[in-house]
Amino acid sequence: MDAQFWHERWENNQIGFHQEEVHFYLQEFWSHLQLPAGREVLVPLCGKTNDMLWLLEQGYRVLGIELSPLAIAAFYEENKLVPIKKQRGNFISWELDEIRILEGDYFALTPVETMETSATYDRASLIALPKKMRIAYVQQLTTLLKVGTKVLLVTLNYPLQEEEVPPFSVTTEEVYKLYRNSFAIELFAAKAVPTQSPRLQTQGIKHLTESAYLLKRS
């Protein structure tokens, strides 16, 4: 799955993965990270999620990373915000007050960009990647985060279909396999929820399991 796939999804408005509402797991479990206000939260593959606004409202600084400039522009425009764009290394940084969204490839990030990151929120990053890319995703996250950094991870689990496109199913077993070498892992919750993805609905998948994990970089 290359960059062109994601650019085409945003160009064609094929963004069934986007949710207008703030995620219920974010509201329910974020306090468990015990992160003081004012700290920076990394939101990889952020799209135009309103979860970033919720984090801002709780008093945090937000650092998003997103490949599509259309997604970033939509986030600011839909929330009536006007960012300043700056070139910062390999990225174009869209900045306004306590939020920065870096336009570019997550895999091009270095610890320089995340040196102030104190926590990470992943609702739609791991599940956006096919199985063959998830190991590299976690390896990159391990490189970017300092020891002790906490992550709120949200995944989906549903019966696999022959043709797979995002959002992908990620089992609890796979989460432990991916993260256990570099993170302590705690499962917060696993709930059956109605399917929101139009693609999965057309395949007859009416419910799926949505899980929330606390990870801590070790």
Tell me about this structure.
- With 218 residues, this protein is an alpha/beta fold.
- The protein folds into two domains: 1-10 and 40-117, 3-Layer(aba) Sandwich (Rossmann fold); 145-218, no CATH class.
- The chain contains seven helices and nine strands, in the order ααβαβαββββαβαβαβ.
- Strands 3-4-5-2-1-6-7-9-8 form a nine-stranded mixed β-sheet, with helices on both faces.
- Strand 3 and strand 4 (91-96) form a beta hairpin.
- The longest helix is centred in the middle third of the chain and has 14 residues, at 131-144.
- The radius of gyration is 16 Å and the shape is globular.
- The protein starts with a helix and ends with a strand.
Q: Briefly, what is this?
A:
With 218 residues, the chain is of the alpha/beta class. The chain has seven helices and nine strands, in the order ααβαβαββββαβαβαβ.
Percent helix range:
25-40%
CATH superfamily annotation of the largest domain: Vaccinia Virus protein VP39
Number of DSSP E strands: 9
Q: So what's the CATH class of the largest domain?
A: Alpha Beta
Distance between the termini: 30 Å
Report strand order across the widest sheet: 3-4-5-2-1-6-7-9-8
Instruction: Quote the average pLDDT.
Output: 90
Biggest pleated-sheet summary = 9 strands, mixed
